[in-house]
Here is the input.
Amino acid sequence: MNQMNLAHGHMTKIDMGSLTLRQLDVFVAVVEQGGFGAAADHLQMSQSAVSHALAALERASGAPLIVRAPTIATTSLGEAILPHARSVLADVRALRATVDIQREGLVRGKVRLAAAPTASHRLVPELLKRWRAELPGLDIRLFEGSDDELEVWLASGAVDAAVLIDPDPVPSGSIVLARDDFRAVFRSDHPLAGEKRISLADLLEDPLLASSSGCEPQITRIHTMAGIPYAPAQRVHETSTLLGMVEAELGVAILPSLARSMLANNLVMVELEPQLDRTLVFSGPSGRPWHPGVERMRDIAETSATNC
Here is the structure.
């Protein structure tokens, strides 16, 4: 039987038995931290140890996983195994925390939490303060991403928990943290600033500014509901940049009401018609057991969840 040709006409045997958790941890850290030095600092290892661990993983895998120059990037094999490495590490974090809580009754370990910028600016910091007070042994790390990224990160094991926006279906075991609606944002000296509620059509005379980091699907839906084509004059990634452009009188924006705390003193929010609400849901992953720390975080958050 002919062997399958892969690289250079030969199939490399992969020595899966020699893989270690430390090697996977190093691989993920190099990718996420963007370099060997940063990964070494993150893992509290020497840079030499990081290099040796990654090299050992590449030998076991039979091919390079990282392109080292000009900038750090994954090879096709590295990109393929990255979500599996993250999933394994997430399960190990949950396993270790489960052992701790069963043997000692203590919630310990590291939890990676993801949230969109409009949630992590006000809602999540308030929860982090309470989690820190009630779960002192838990190291919670916050990662910001777009609405679409959050579900991908949670499914892949890149994070252990996330504040999801309008998940469909709502994951089992999750809780609703808050609900808010979308509103127009403009300068306080704008002719419409004194209105309690305006229609989307009232904004047509101003350039519409949009952010690609989240909420764009909902804003598109508002336009569809109003029968108005969605045609932003400018699209940026960061919400802070978007607000800076509104301050500079370059246009108006539409943001969820939770973003009110992000506004400078010379910006205002006005209710918008048609009204569209969104739901923010705290959840662990679907399809695998939750980290026990995430379960405790959910229970604490449930007692303080409010409708905004």
Remarks:
- The domain at 184-279 is CATH 3.40.190.10 (D-Maltodextrin-Binding Protein; domain 2).
